[in-house]
UniProtKB/TrEMBL annotation:
Domain HTH araC/xylS-type: 218-316
Keywords, ordered alphabetically: DNA-binding, Transcription, Transcription regulation
InterPro entries to which the protein is assigned, alphabetical: Homeodomain-like_sf (IPR009057), HTH_AraC (IPR018060), PocR_dom (IPR018771), Tscrpt_reg_AraC-type_HTH (IPR020449)
Protein name as annotated: PocR ligand-binding domain-containing protein
Keyword hit for DNA-binding: yes
Species this chain originates from: Ohessyouella blattaphilus
UniProt xrefs under SUPFAM superfamilies: Homeodomain-like
Length: 319
């Protein structure tokens, strides 16, 4: 989905402005990369040393490889990952995830640390003999290397935590907005009329539906819409229609284009969306009144179909 492409979630022009501001405040060079390690923003406060080496196409590939590997490692540990690049410069990978899916990272750093106590062991994520040889052989590179900013390691740790919380909050908010906007543009093909008011124990007249072409399914639909507070099994519906479960299932899928379970989940969530926006019922009560035994399961189903939690849906739908 587009929602898992970082450059389609964010307004990159505004994100670039924010990134530039953060770089000024933290004194860190910052760039945002996708899940492959390829930049989607321009470097903010990139040091002259890194500008020089990234101008070399082959060396830049090593930089991208460092960014990609570091981003994945940060996602694995679910926290900022501080490491040494192939030139032994400190960099930080700030993972950006959606539903535990790694979609990119904010890469910060290009600094040399000052350790308060004993030397902290940091992983050198990519060993490159060619990189270190080029540094040893070039007086210009050594001069630029000495100009790289120096920061206390404790300050680097604090800034990495701040960036982690800030970036993921912004991406989460942007994702929710994009998803809800997309839902408004592309309404579900399954049109249902949820019950009115706070009570979900609606009758057929309150929660209407189009009569099916296969009239054999009518008793089941009438029962479903008359008992919105129940989680009704396929077996129960087949009994109401005087059909075997297998035959009922095939008829139902032919009629609606989805199986019974998928239909019921979508129907319940559509009702839940109505209640979330038109009542102030707590989410746990909505879950209970729609027949979900466990609020956690209700939230899981809702998020699977709508890509946001019920609470987040209510928040943005009411704006």
């Amino acid at each position: 989905m587009a929602f898992f492409n970082l450059d389609q979630i964010l307004n990159l022009e505004k994100w670039q402005d924010l990134q530039d501001s953060l770089a000024e405040v933290t004194k860190l060079a910052i760039i945002t990369v996708n899940y492959k390690g390829a930049p989607i923003t321009t470097h903010s406060k990139c040091t002259p040393f890194c500008q020089k080496i990234r101008a070399d196409e082959e060396i830049e590939k090593r930089c991208h490889k460092c960014d990609s590997r570091a981003g994945l490692e940060a996602t694995r540990i679910n926290e900022p990952y501080i490491y040494l690049c192939h030139y032994n410069i400190i960099d930080i990978a700030i993972p950006i995830t959606i539903d535990d899916k790694y979609i990119g990272a904010v890469m910060a750093g290009q600094v040399r640390p000052v350790f308060a106590d004993s030397q902290t062991e940091l992983e050198r994520i990519l060993h490159s003999t060619a990189s270190m040889e080029s540094l040893a052989e070039s007086a210009e590179l050594r001069r630029l290397y000495e100009q790289i900013p120096v920061l206390n390691y404790e300050d680097i740790l604090q800034m990495s935590e701040m960036l982690f919380k800030l970036c993921n909050y912004i991406v989460e908010e942007a994702t929710a907005r994009n998803i809800l906007a997309d839902m408004q543009e592309h309404q579900s093909a399954l049109q249902t009329q949820p019950p009115d008011g706070i009570s979900v124990n609606a009758k057929v007249s309150d929660a209407s539906f189009e009569k099916p072409k296969n009239v054999k399914l009518l008793p089941a639909l009438e029962y479903i819409y008359s008992n919105t507070h129940l989680m009704i099994s396929l077996e129960k519906c087949s009994q109401l229609c005087n059909l075997s479960p297998g035959y009922f299932s095939r008829c139902f899928t032919r009629e609606f284009g989805v199986n019974y379970s998928s239909y019921m989940n979508r129907l319940k969530i559509d009702w839940a969306k109505k209640l979330l926006t038109e009542t102030d019922l707590p989410i746990t009560q909505i879950s209970d009144q729609l027949g979900f035994n466990d609020p956690g399961y209700f939230i899981k189903v809702f998020k699977k179909l709508e890509y946001v939690t019920p609470a987040m849906y209510r928040r943005y739908a009411l704006e």
